[in-house]
Amino acid sequence: MKKPPQDLSQLLHQQGNMPNLAEKAELLLHLDHYVKQVLTGPVTEQLKVANLRQGILVIETTTAAWAARINFQKPKILQLLQAETLPMLTAIEVKVNPSLLMYETKRKPAHNLISENAAAHIEALAEHTEGTLAVKLKRLAALASRSRQS
Fold it and tell me: Is residue 4 a part of any domain in this protein?
C-alpha cells in the first residue's frame, strides 16, 4: 500500500539542510515584521530584511533616498533589536535593490464608488436598454446608494 502524504512542515523539519533553511526563513520573516514595526510611515513599504549573516542584519530598499532615511535610524533599530530579539547583532547594513519595485504589491484603489450624477446617467441608459445589459446597468447604478450608506 502507498504511504499517506506527509505534511510539508514535517518534511521541512526532518531532512538535510531544509530545517536550517526553514528556520532562517522564519527568522528573517519575523525580523522583517519587527523592523517594519520599529520604522513607521511609508518607508516600511520600501524595505525588506534580506539576510542575517555573522551578526550583520542586511536590509534592502528600493532607492538610495530610502536607504539614507533608514541609515539615519540604524542606531535606534540596532539598539531595539539587540535588546529585544537578537543580542548577538553587531551591525545593520542597508543595500539598494531597485528590483524590489518589481515584487512590491501595490494596493488597488477602490473603484466601487459611483457618484449620484454617474448613477443617474447609468440608470437613464438602463431604461433605454433591454435584456441582461439593462439588469447589470441597474445594479451598477444601485452602487451609488450603497456607497453613501457605508
Answer: no
Q: Do residue 91 and residue 130 come from a single domain?
A: no
Residue 50 CA to residue 63 CA, distance in Å, equals 15
Rounded to whole angstroms, the maximal C-alpha distance in the chain is 73
pLDDT in tens, the chain (150 residues): 677 877 776 665 666 666 677 788 888 999 999 999 888 888 888 899 999 999 999 999 999 999 999 999 999 999 999 998 889 999 999 999 988 877 655 555 556 677 888 888 888 888 988 888 888 888 888 877 665 555
94 and 120 together in one domain = no
Q: Closest by alpha carbon to 26, among 55, 61, 58, 52? A: 52
CATH number at residue 68: 3.30.300.180
Cell output for 123: 440608470
